[in-house]
Specification:
This protein is about 55% helix and about 10% strand. It is α+β, with helices and mostly antiparallel strands.
Length: about 500
Amino acid sequence: MTRRTAHVVLALCTVWACNTLRDAVSGHREVVAQAAGHRLTIQKAAEMLAAASPGSAPANLAVVERFANLWTEYTLLAVEAATPDSFSDLPLDPIAQFPTDQGLVWRLRDQEILPRAKVSDEELRLAYETEQPGLEFRASHILLRLPPEPEKQESVRALAESIRSRATAGEDFRALARRYSADPTSASQGGELPWFGKGRTVPEFEAAVLALQPDQVSPVVQSQFGLHIIKLLERRRPPLGEVAERFRVSLEDQRVQELEQKYLDSLFAAADVAIPEGAVASVREIANAGPLLVLWGSRRKQKLATYRGGELTAAEFVDFLHYAPEQIRNYFARANEEELQRGLRELVRNELLIRAAYDRGTTLDSAARDSIQRLSRDQVASAFAAAGFSHSVMSAADTAIERQVDQLLRAGLEGRRPLRPLGLLGSVLRARYPARVYPERFAAVVTELEAQRATRDTTSGAAPVPQPSQPGAAPGAAPAEGATAPPRRS
């Protein structure tokens, strides 16, 4: 999947800002990341990572890369909080891109689907006669429980047939129900049930009732509860005028679903969507790897889905999970193969719909655009609030930024609060302030982290904990610098 032009501009701005500082910071060999004049040293990075358990923050290059980028983003967030205007003039277009895309998809739906889903008065009348909305029944039944032993069931079936014969011959159904029915609720009422509509009973019972006319007795019916002999007493349905509007909405909703599926099927057929071999296994592995996963080298470019004019790569899926709600990650982590295939196709489907909306020239009205801008600004404000980065705190002292960022990251590493990338807000901040991460110094952090943990284990008398291998590493591959934005179409 390709990214939008805005994301490319952000990336270029970030690279330009980083390069202008190359000479200024190249002499600080102990620095693993810097952000707007603040520095994360190798010693400090290792010390902070050592606070986390080896299982949640193993000593490998990918974890160091993710941590360095988290430190960079949250430091820039704190720097922005310390400014007099505190994020009020941040560019929101990149942050607004996702809700804009989704709004365009809904607008496309309004244009392509809804006009064809309308139900005419004649169609409504015919459907009313066929589907009989609001139809209800009043019935009586006699229930015989089937014993679990097969050899004992035949006698119960014979009894049921005998009772039915007596009922069809005119014997009082209410008296038969009181004598034989095992339904503790209705037996004392002569087997009579309260009024019920379609979908309120088990399928076998409903099918038998639908086939009856008033005063008719059904054949013996078996359900999960046992054997039933049913007598229909009465049926009723409201006149069309009472249910017309609700029924019309129900029919149109059903048509919308059918038309949407046909439209999506046509998009999929035209796009020639395919899930390559090995993609499902990679998706499960990535989802189970945890939020600090960073893929390297050829693993980043692995194709998880392909379609005409685009593809979904492993790196883009990692980015998607970084910004998705926790339940989405859990879905991909626990899903079976069929569900994972469906999940990948859902991601491609969304991209195809966005592309279709842009190709069609779909636009949002000014009210929708203004609403998205307000939502985006609220999201930015929420990010500041969630981090606890207020202007009054950050501007109180020169050391406030470093102190607050340290506290936040330590709490995240120790599992006391969620710690997630800032997503597109992080990209916006990187475009505004000078920042750089030094991949060539990640190995030094790993070495120092291992040394600190070994010293701690020796002091405490604990056995050294084996470190997990580098997830997604390719021999000789260099880690990517910086966090990428989530996948979007250009």
